């Protein structure tokens, strides 16, 4: 007779688990005996946990609910400018301890050291919950990040005192190359500085003027705060072991008036592996191209095709930004991705008496890039020594009328591709690449007559695959044979 049952199981949040069943039975002799069995329990909840290999991960700390009493404490804990010392009130995280690894792993928080020798984090200001900038966002190793946030401040009072507006704030710290105790300190180098006027006109600061002070300056007469940090782009180079080798930053410093408040600040960090002489060339498919991977391109020589070791590829297209000038500033470029149509551009003003040939050369270089390849691989894994697997980039220039000043106003890259192989697993193959450059067909307006001249850059992919055909040459026939005595004994 069964008079007592005990069921022992694990965490009820698991999708399935083994449960031990203990039952107490009475034998025929009157003794009690424990009978054990194991049964499989299934959790019907759709939000169950499939597997759990970390026991501590099944327990979570109950978060603090903001109330009127603890709101100020929580706000001061998670909001603050991160470039200060680690003892600042705004630091919500603790400085990571040193380890034995010579470099960082994916997702690790990078350690920094300020001018006072205090250890802190490398973080990027970002918006969280609201559009306002919160400076407690840690930058993780190998995680490219782009953020935009709004900065509110008083122009007269905070122009020269608010750290978030200062150029030195974003360059005065150094980064530990790794997590071990012997890690080197890597300084932040300045790659480019672009000055932006109140009307949005940008001018690249030349190298000869690098000694010019770049700190914010308040002009009382014009009620303008000059050289305010509007954009910061960090580029982190790292080695094979994950150690940081070099860090550079590009800035956009702008003039801000009262009518422009609050301002929008842009922050970006990207990671690039330092190229080696024996670096492995990455493919974009095997063999056919994969959707979204960069086109494989290079330059032809007598020995074969020379490819760039840049993982983003050597065939790039101009990125679009608001009020991007074709003649000034450092244009940002992105790789041409297979199967992704792109449309971008820039604008410029043609000054009176400008050298038309020079302007045309600068704009064409902006559209095509400084190192434009002349061959594209037909497959994603085409080898450089196999010249038959590469197609040239053909050129088609359109000038409909003769003008005193011919300037390219449109650049289009047309990529034709087809499906190669079986219907079950077709492979994408590029058959031709054509660049189409269109120049102006009429006289362009000069700066005296006003008006911006737009220039467009585009990439399109055209599928030229033929209609699918069956895999057999002729329709199948029935080959039926009857035995010789099938009609016996009638015949």
Automatic annotation (TrEMBL):
GO biological process, one term: protein localization to ciliary transition zone
GO cellular component: MKS complex
Domain Tectonic-1-3: from-to ranges: 102-273, 284-464
InterPro entries linked to this entry: TCTN1-3 (IPR040354), TCTN1-3_dom (IPR011677)
Taxonomy, superkingdom: Eukaryota
Quaternary assembly: Part of the tectonic-like complex (also named B9 complex).
Protein name, entry field: Tectonic family member 1
Source species of the chain: Astyanax mexicanus (Blind cave fish)
